[in-house]
Specification:
heterodimer; A: 381 residues; alpha/beta; Peroxisomal Thiolase, Chain A, domain 1; 9-stranded mixed sheet; B: 139 residues; mainly beta
């Protein structure tokens, strides 16, 4: 069993890039990550990669080089990037490989996703009658959560305001302009209680990480972070997920709660030890609920946390320091790896104007998606 | 009661003594109720009818026209309410909500199943389902 380190990270800016395919953005990210390490593509022993709707990752070898390396395509919905990293982590941890790449990229058309019921094991009427929208799920999950725990729209707005403020400071973000809370609250209602500025949009972008064994990382002597945990989990009984025509009366946990626990167990740390967190913020309610599902606060404590600015870059637990999905958009295949990229940059002290103070040591990342899958990673400087 | 258009899918909705019920499946081994119903050929499940009345568990309003496909409604769009309704002894079911002002939606309000005429983009009408507040539910 080998320790696993991330020794390089590259990103193609998120947003819209006419003229570059998703695959080409992926190649850009891989080259940037390699350049950071001084290694060449021919040094890489294996790769895991994927996109949701921008093609097969392994065709990148046409541009990167025909070295014959094993290149595994990953397709796991919103957890595609997290799953690619899980694959790379496991391959190195096993001792079989000492140097590999995890890459995720995507390029989605404008507007909401348009899923087909049959792809999700659902009857056609569910989509035909207008029930199959991710936006409805997120709205109804936070609607009930707000009623149960006394959270108000102002807290939803404050999360979006923070995201856009952080995005201004992140070179790779899509939305680079601050938006004030009153504009956010009074913008067009999309799916009550969530307004237009409270939702992220499908977009484009790519991220690549270079992973190495402990031995190889020490030999190379590069700024690096240790991957203390990488966990992927599907939904447990009683969870509330995207695309659910019905829910069990007996309510249970979520894929996030069990992925989170597994990651803490693997790393041997608890939520109180984490210095910086990147949490799935498909919309502002998701960030709020995921603060609790990942163990950082109790249900309902988010109101005080956010009012006191505890999740701002200069707070006690900075959350989504690059503006998260709200400011970066959500290219599905790349989104989970962007979170790890951000933690890598923050923990190696290279985050520039958005650098979290206090030399953060432990970084946490969490991605969630349909039909109920979460991936959590914990990295340590 | 006026004659309704054909039901939008098999094994979804059935009329019993003038009242409509959603059809679900009960796992013979675990007792868990599942909706939509499993195919009749799956002998691990019994076919069951869901209770017609429940309480609103959560809700939202669909304010933009969903993408087609999968949405098959007409091009002209009116916002509609969607919610989950808790049916005691069975499950929590997702549904359109009708006969209620968006401002009047409240978690825990009593709701009752009603048939919903649904116009497809082609102009063909099919019968789907919705929940309406109990005070205003049509029989």
């Amino acid at each position: 069993m080998s320790d696993v380190f991330i020794i390089g990270a590259g990103i193609h800016p998120f947003g819209r890039t006419p003229g570059l395919s998703g695959l080409q953005q992926g190649v850009y990210a891989v080259r940037q990550a390699l350049a950071q390490t001084g290694l060449g593509w021919s040094d890489i022993r294996f790769a895991f990669g994927g996109s949701d709707s921008a093609g097969n990752a392994d065709t990148m070898v046409s541009e990167l080089g025909l070295t014959g390396l094993p290149f595994i395509n990953v397709a796991n919905g919103c957890a595609t990037g997290g799953s690619a990293m899980f694959g790379a982590y496991s391959a190195i941890k096993s001792g079989e490989f000492d140097l590999g790449i995890a890459v995720g990229f995507d390029k989605h058309p404008r507007g909401s996703f348009s899923p087909l019921p049959a792809d999700w094991g659902l009857p056609d009427w569910y989509g035909e009658t207008g029930l199959m929208l991710t936006t409805q799920f997120f709205a109804m999950k936070i609607q009930r959560y707000m009623a149960t725990y006394g959270i108000t729209p102002r807290t939803l707005g404050a999360v979006a305001e923070k995201a856009f403020a952080n995005g201004v400071l992140a070179d790779h973000a899509w939305r680079r302009e601050a938006v004030d809370i009153d504009t956010i609250l009074s913008s067009q209602m999309v799916s009550d209680p969530l307004t237009k500025f409270m939702f992220c949009s499908p977009g484009e972008g790519a991220v690549a990480l270079v992973l190495a064994s402990g031995k190889r990382a020490r030999e190379l002597g590069l700024p690096s972070v240790r991957l203390r945990a990488a966990a992927v989990r599907t939904r447990p009984p009683g969870s509330f997920e995207v695309f659910s025509p019905a829910l069990d009366l007996e309510r249970g946990g979520s894929p996030t709660t069990i992925a989170s626990r597994a990651a803490y167990d693997m790393a041997g740390v608890g939520p109180e030890d984490i210095d910086i967190a990147q949490l799935q913020d498909t919309e502002t309610g998701a960030e709020i609920m995921h603060m609790a599902e990942n163990g950082f606060c109790a249900d309902g404590e988010q109101t005080a946390w956010i009012a006191e600015g505890r999740t701002r870059i200069d707070g006690t637990l900075p959350v989504n320091t690059d503006g998260g999905c709200l400011a970066c958009g959500e290219p599905i295949g790349a989104s989970g790896l962007r979170q790890v990229y951000e933690n890598f940059v923050q923990l190696t002290g290279r985050a520039g104007r958005r650098q979290a103070p206090g030399n953060p040591r432990l970084g946490y990342s969490h991605v969630y998606g349909a039909p109920g899958v979460s991936a959590v990673a914990i990295v340590e400087r | 009661m006026p004659t309704l258009a054909p039901i939008i899918a098999d094994n979804l909705l059935v009329e019993v003594d003038g009242a409509y019920h959603l059809i679900a499946s009960r796992d013979r081994a675990s007792g868990r109720t599942i909706f939509p119903a499993r195919p009749d050929s799956d002998d691990r499940y019994d076919s069951v009818l869901l209770p017609r009345e429940g309480r609103l568990w959560s809700w939202t309003v669909q304010r933009f026209r969903p993408k087609s496909p999968p949405y098959a409604g007409p091009a002209a769009f009116e916002p509609y309410a969607v919610g989950y309704v808790q049916l005691d002894g069975a499950l929590i079911v997702e549904s359109r909500l009708i006969d209620v002002d968006f401002d009047g939606l409240r978690i825990d309000m009593p709701m009752r199943l009603v048939p919903l005429p649904f116009t497809l983009a082609s102009g063909v009408v099919r019968t789907s389902f919705a929940f309406a507040p109990v005070e205003e539910a049509r029989r």
